[in-house]
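Note to self: keep these together.
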Amino acid sequence: MNLKKFEEDLSNSKKIFEKLNEAGKTIIKHHLEERNIPFSEIKSRIKDPNSAIEKQRSKKYESPMRDMTDLVAFRVIVFLESDVEKVEEILRSTFEIDENNCIDKRKKSIDQVGYRSLHLVCSLGDDRKSVPEYSTLCNSKFEIQIRTALENAWAEIEHKQNYKGENSLPESLQRRLMIVAGALELVDKEFSNIVKEAAQYTHELANSTESVLEDKISTTSAEALLENLAKEEGKQYKPVKNKFKNTLIGELAAFGINSNKELKGLIETTKAKVLQNDDELTLLGFYRDSMMAKDLERYLRASYNNSFTFLLDEIEFLEGVCEYKNVRSILKKYDADFDEVRWSDIE
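Structure:
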């Protein structure tokens, strides 16, 4: 094809590319979020005309506007290798896939390491032609790359340093580069394995498997036991930020709760009271209430450390549900902070 004609076609298609770029990113993001697939980033780009012309010079496509499938391209960056297949499944059900042009660069021979990514060539598909904003875009193809964060970091380093190709560096440095690439691949796989086994661990905790009950408590086990309780009791579980989680483990240990078995026992002996106080279960709120319901003075003496201010809601829970007498006097004895207001007054 005449390069001048191709350059004109690219210029005339600029608005189409911009609309497709916006539509594709919106659709990808919507479907991943709808299926609760965590992702690091969704990137998009329209191929630079000069780059497209250089590619045509090299590839000599018969019809570059049709055959050059990456004039608009997206990159979905996920955290785990196991999420790549989940994203692939969603995208295959979302778009029309050009199987002949898809490339799976994750598949390597036994002596290969390095760049890995899944490339899908897609179009919006005939089903979207009835949607006015998509009607002119449905036949245009675009590429979606799916990578993990580590794969993306490796690809960016290779690109920036121009290390692609087996002859890009002296042999000794090339070998070291390949060793690093192999190590990154193993790390990627191990991250996915750890997440998978952590999910299995929470399942075993929920089913009171003896081997995991003897383990030392962790934020993972504390969350798993509380999430399971929330499901059983029809309560809402609200996750907390990571920075607060280690605070809880320290408080539990000071209170004398060190194993998952002991933590499960604390839940069983106090949940009838605590669930009356908490409609929405949070990690710190539930376990602190549990320790206070079990032994208020022990909690104040060993675990409290003036880490929060008692409000009227807590006083009513301790006196009305837990049946402690003179709670204000007990708090004063341990120099605990107290304020005569309710949560509703300060929220």
